[in-house]
Amino acid sequence: MNNRPIYAGHRIDTYRLVSLLGRGSYGDVYLAEHVHSHRQFAIKLLFGFTRPEARDFINEVSILARLKHHNIISLVHFGTYKLVDPTSVEEDLPFLVMDYAPGGTLRDRFPLRRQPPFYQVPLHTVVSYIGQVAAALQCAHDDQIRAIIHCDVKPANMLMANADQILLSDFGISLPERITTDFLNSYGQEALGTPLYMAPEQWERKAEKASDQYSLGIVAYQWLAGRSPFEGRDHIQLAWQHKHTHPPSLLDQVPGLPNDVERVIFRALEKDPSKRFARAQEFADALALASANKLDLLGAGGDIPPLLPKRGKPSRRTVILVGVSGLISASGCCLTWWVTSKYQQPLPATPSPSPISLRTLSYTYRNHSKSVNTVAWSWSPDDKYIASGSDDGTVRVWNTITGSDSFPPLFPPNEKQSPNPPVYAVAWSPNGDYIASGSDDNSVRVWSTDPHNTNHTR
Hints:
The structure is a single chain. The chain is an alpha+beta fold. It folds into 3 domains: 11-99, Phosphorylase Kinase, domain 1; 106-298, Transferase(Phosphotransferase) domain 1 (Transferase(Phosphotransferase), domain 1, Orthogonal Bundle), CATH 1.10.510; 316-457, Methylamine Dehydrogenase, Chain H. 21% of the residues lie in helices and 24% in strands. The strands form 7 sheets. A 6-stranded antiparallel sheet has the order 1-2-3-4-6-5. Strands 19-20-21-22 form a 4-stranded antiparallel sheet, with no helix packed on it. Strand 1 and strand 2 form a beta hairpin. Helix 3 runs antiparallel to helix 6, helix 3 (123-141) runs antiparallel to helix 9 and helix 8 (259-268) runs antiparallel to helix 9 (280-291). The longest helix is centred in the N-terminal third of the chain and has 19 residues, at 123-141.
């Protein structure tokens, strides 16, 4: 793997390779600069392909180019190349051009160790990052044309755009949900993941959506414990452990960890894919609730339900929106809100549950670039979303469980106009499918909460 030449200084298409950023078993990643715009990008060069395999691979990658999500690294260009190198006999090899994330990877930020002292990540950070990666995976899994399975979810493929935003990368080995045996035979076992993170079914060459959730569960376990649940000496041992060995208790390794956090992660690590959460986003949502000791809101006792059930209005809910104008700074503004809730649980036959004590959650959302003028709760039964309108001319939708953006910012149809008209009012439709916004350009806009639908102006 490390015997490949370093091609810094070479040119591929309209990109000049500046320096080597990292190496993998099937490709190298370079910092590159566009020869005309001088903008920096990351380029992944893939090796070991025959000409027909390279052509097939590019056909598959074209599916990924349409994935647009604020937690997915943007794939801006792809093609085949031949390096101008007399020692190179390979030609027509694939390359992928992606946005460059200067913050590095989460593997570098949270190093994994086999011996103490272990680097353990705070629970609130784990919840935030798992929520963002799960949102990215859900976008790929829910693609309306062809669902995409990532197949290599791990910290090395999670990039830091900034201190708060994570970008899932390396969709270059992702597979369509309905993958063919011929495709797997062409690309081999490497195409199905990294052994430390591979789900049991991946070892049988049967990747599915739940496989990505399993890998994300391994990542969550690693970050909390500072070590992997499975540490086999070789691939054979790792395969056996993933298929047959129960992970060691997290509660024994992380003092003060809520019991339900372990329950949620262990469900994501079930050997049988059908016993995991139905969706990656449900895993992240359950983890967020468990971290706040609120998993009991899903129901009294028993297994963790696969979905957050619809519930009636809480017996008391107080929302305090804190002075927006005082939160504006040169770098932008933020909206801080507190939610205090007291819920009445459904009564099982026996025994009656004890009352739930009042708890207070605090979130700070920072993504608007100007003053926030209005906010509104969703009409969904679980009160999961909040919408905000700002002087920056955008409407943003926030997930109240994970604390992250649920959608890219909503711009008016003339988004190229500068500046966009400020938004002074937002409201949800009763079924939660639409958001109405009012601006000072004398218009009311109706936005669909389905990112695949077209926004409308009335």
